UniProtKB/TrEMBL annotation:
Species per Swiss-Prot/TrEMBL record: Hyphomicrobium denitrificans 1NES1
A Pfam family: Zn_ribbon_DnaG
Signal peptide residues on this chain, from the entry's feature table: none
Domain Zinc finger CHC2-type per the UniProt entry, residue ranges: 13-103
Highest taxon in the source lineage: Bacteria
A Gene Ontology molecular function term of the record: DNA-directed RNA polymerase activity
Protein's UniProt name: DNA primase
């Protein structure tokens, strides 16, 4: 079954990771070719030729050409398209599946497509809720809010969080006093709530 035309394919990633020689090996064709200088020659696998010199492969630049009945050539994608009798898009899909080629760009695009909006929904803050007493110096230090990233709301109500920095916990009386807070992205005027006062001991 062929993949739909809308199925995303990263041609650059496929060409970077998969060579023509790898494709020939998958078809078991390397054994049918003999080296002639920097080229490989053999019978054409496309039209099932018998002339052992009509199908020429240049491994260095990743191209092939049939000088027999086919009278045409190309690169890795075109060879798979000819052998599988599919178009180049479907050939790329099959190559990606055979050699487990994934694309970070496509993965990001697919993840973002699940979000309800292109614009971020929330700002992400790490918050120390209260003033705290430094156990070494006895100094009372103020609580704080620090912007550490952005969050996108997904269609299912979950969130994708993109952090620009890692949260740093604040310890007070042996307990973590830092929490993560999401605030509406459009809420530019609202000031963060003031920190609570520490109990004086």
């Amino acid at each position: 079954m062929s993949a739909p035309k809308s199925y995303p394919v990263d041609y650059t990633q496929i060409r970077r990771l998969v060579s023509l020689t790898m494709v020939l090996s998958r078809y078991g064709l390397i054994e049918t070719l003999t080296r002639s200088g920097q080229q490989l020659r053999g019978p054409c696998p496309i039209h099932s030729g018998t002339n052992k010199r009509q199908f020429v492969v240049n491994p260095r630049d990743g191209t092939w050409h049939c000088f027999g009945n086919c009278s045409r050539g190309g690169a890795m994608l075109e060879l798979v398209a000819e052998l599988e009798k599919v178009d180049v898009h479907e050939a790329a899909v099959r190559i990606a599946q055979w050699f487990a080629v994934s694309s970070p760009h496509l993965a990001t695009t697919e993840r973002r497509s699940k979000m309800s909006a292109v614009s971020p929904s929330f700002k992400v803050f790490t918050v120390s809720d209260r003033e705290w007493k430094d156990p070494k110096t006895g100094e009372i230090k103020k609580g704080w809010w620090t912007r550490i990233g952005t969050a996108f709301e997904n269609k299912d109500g979950s969130h994708n969080v993109q952090l620009d920095a890692l949260p740093v916990p604040t310890i007070y009386d042996g307990a973590v006093q830092t929490r993560i807070v999401l605030r509406p992205y459009e809420d530019e005027e609202q000031d963060p709530e003031p920190p609570k006062k520490a109990a004086r001991k």
